[in-house]
Amino acid sequence: MHNEIQKTTKIVDELSSLLMNKGSLEIDIKLKLSDVCTTIFITDYNTTLTQDEINTLSQFLNIPRQTEVEEYYWGLMGETSDDDELFLLGSMIDSANLELRDSNLYIELIRTLK
Predict the structure, then answer these.
(1) Which of 41, 44, 61, 90 could form a disulfide with 96 if both were Cys (CB 3.0 to 4.6 A apart)?
(2) Beta carbons of 11 and 40 less than 8 angstroms apart
(3) CB contact set of 61 (below 8 Å; sequence gap of 6+)
C-alpha cells in the first residue's frame, strides 16, 4: 500500500507541475480512494493549454497501462524529459478523461489497484 500512495502522489505532482509550467494559476485536486481503484480529479481553471496540447496530453495519458514499466521506472518521474514523464504517467493509469468546458480543463484519472 505504501508504494500505491507514493505512486499516486507522483502522478498528482507530475500533472500539477505540468499545468503550472504551462501557466496555470488555479488548480483543484481531489482524490477518491477505494479498495478497487484510486480516482484523481484535477480542475485547471482558465486553462492556458490549447486544444492541441489537451489532445496530446490525452493521447499520452490514455496509452495502455504497462505494469512492468511502472514497477521499474515510476521512481524516475520528475527526472526525465517532458515526453518521457507523460509516457510514464500514461503507463501508470488505466484511463484518463480530459474535458474542456467554459475555459476550464477537467481531468479524471483512474488507477485500478492490482
Answers:
(1) 61
(2) yes
(3) 86, 89, 90, 93, 96, 98, 109
Cα Rg of the chain, angstroms: 13
Sign of CA dihedral 77, 24, 59, 53: negative
Predicted confidence (pLDDT) per residue in 61-104, tens digit:
998 887 776 776 666 565 544 556 777 888 889 999 999 999 99
Q: What is the mean pLDDT of residues 1-26?
A: 88
Nearest to 23 by CA among 57, 53, 49: 49
31 CB-near residues (< 8 Å, 6+ apart): 8, 12, 38, 39, 40, 41
Those residues with Cβ within 8 angstroms of residue 100's Cβ, 6 or more apart along the chain or in another chain: 47, 51, 54, 106
The whole-angstrom separation of Cα 69 and Cα 94 is: 13
Nearest-CA neighbor of 68 among 94, 36, 39, 92? 92
